[in-house]
Amino acid sequence: MSSSATYELALVRRRVRRQAARSVLGAVGRSLLTFVLTVALVLVIWWGVLAVFHVDPFVAKSPADVWEYLVTSPRAAEHRADVLDPLGTTLVDALIGFTAGLLAALVGATVFQLSKGVENALMPVAMLLRSVPLIAMAPVIIMIFGRGTAVVAVIGGIVVLFPALVTIAYGLKQAPPASTDLVHVYGGGSWSALRKVALPASLPSFFAAVRISVPGAITGALLAEWLATGTGIGHAVSEAKTQVQFSFLWSSVVVVTAVSLVLYNLVALLESIALARAGMKQTQV
């Protein structure tokens, strides 16, 4: 290769790196701005609802009350420990449900992509099960799986599974037909087309599934703790209500919501960076 061609190639690579860096910085900026605006909107709505409906201050706590409970009161350190200890259990439970649900969704979407007959047979069943309230199914799930880690994986996995399954399955169907046909022309089968074309093309939808699964996994963990295990924030909030510990209840809800928001935006940031580097657009859900 001549020196001029080498120089031109180096310029192209440098230009691509600069464009990727600008895309990453733009993604970071958008994620941070979205996070700040979301927090501000939540605080405004919170204050507004309490002011408009004149909720009894003994029951409803304002952002200032929660801040005092967790930060400025003489027993703030003790209060934070009371909230953060069960929160650790909830995050572990959420991780279990997230992993179980997302893996099941990925396997299910892959099977659907390989076999339209299986998709036509099982997708209506999945949607039917999704329409049944989880609380109604909880007694049966508890009788089958007990009250340990297995029930956390099942309940959390159910909450995560269906939205992720639909999102990933949709993404796999967006594979370019021309690329799929090219794989078949060169002797590749359905599995080769899935691996070489459909899975790479579904990357935006996969990230979208991960993004929506994060708060879903925390919701599933709270449900499992409330209905089955008797641990974590889900159980602690239920107990706080019966014991009239409203400051703890509101603080726990705020902390869980804040953690969900942070994790959601963290995943969205990683998604934006990965897709920007891959030259793909983010899927809106």
Automatic annotation (TrEMBL):
InterPro entries: MetI-like (IPR000515), MetI-like_sf (IPR035906). It is found in: Cell membrane. CDD domains: TM_PBP2. Coiled coil: none annotated. Keywords: Cell membrane, Membrane, Transmembrane, Transmembrane helix, Transport. GO terms for cellular component: plasma membrane. GO terms for biological process: transmembrane transport. The keyword Transmembrane applies. Residues 83-267 form the ABC transmembrane type-1 domain. The chain crosses the membrane at residues 23-49, 94-115, 127-145, 151-172, 205-228, 248-270. It is a multi-pass membrane protein. Belongs to the binding-protein-dependent transport system permease family. This is ABC-type nitrate/sulfonate/bicarbonate transport system permease component.
